[in-house]
Specification:
The chain is an alpha/beta fold and 168 residues long. The protein is built from six helices and seven strands; from the N terminus they run βαββαββααβααβ. The longest helix has 14 residues. The radius of gyration is 15 Å and the shape is globular. This is Hydrogenase maturation protease.
């Protein structure tokens, strides 16, 4: 199996009604609007679906998750989590979702016998507990281009390709 045969799933996670909680979905939307991706790369709004994503995740060889990550640093701090960092970080329930990625990945392995390689492109949220709003804080909005670049590098690293769309 060549790298281009490997299925890549890019998940934008979060609840867009809770400000910075929706950053993963907002970054995913920008990627979809700005680039075309190779056939082996699928971009999906994962929202806060948790276990509903089990089948989709188990069919992928590589999963790239874009999400808010609570690690206690300054709002806007960017993270790249994989391997042991991913296990340690997500084991402490620092995702703002009820069902975190690690639990969903473990369920994939239990149900299907397969757990794909995973990486999280994350950012420390500023506001995810105030009144519902579709607006992302300025601290996070200003970092969206960097998060997009991080996600594009991850896609390339595992055999996906992308090309900029022509502005219409």
């Amino acid at each position: 199996m060549t790298n281009t045969d490997k299925k890549i799933l890019v998940l934008g996670c979060g609840n867009i009604l809770l400000r910075d909680e929706g950053i993963g979905v907002r970054v995913l939307e920008r990627l979809q609007d700005t680039y075309d991706f190779s056939e082996n790369t699928e971009l999906v709004d994962g929202g806060v679906r948790g276990l509903i994503l089990t089948d989709m995740i188990s069919q992928a060889d590589h999963v790239i998750v874009i999400d808010a990550v609570i690690n206690g640093h300054e709002p806007g701090t960017l993270y790249r989590l994989d391997g042991d960092d991913l296990k340690l970080s997500l084991a402490f329930k620092n995702s703002v979702h009820d069902m975190d990625l690690l639990e969903t990945m473990c369920c994939c392995e239990l149900i299907t016998g397969k757990r794909p390689a995973a990486v999280v492109v994350g950012i420390e949220p500023k506001d995810y507990q105030s009144s519902p709003s579709l607006e992302i804080s300025e601290e996070l909005t200003s970092r969206i281009p960097e998060m997009m670049d991080m996600a594009l590098k991850e896609i390339e690293a595992v055999g996906g390709t992308w090309t900029p769309r022509n502005p219409s």
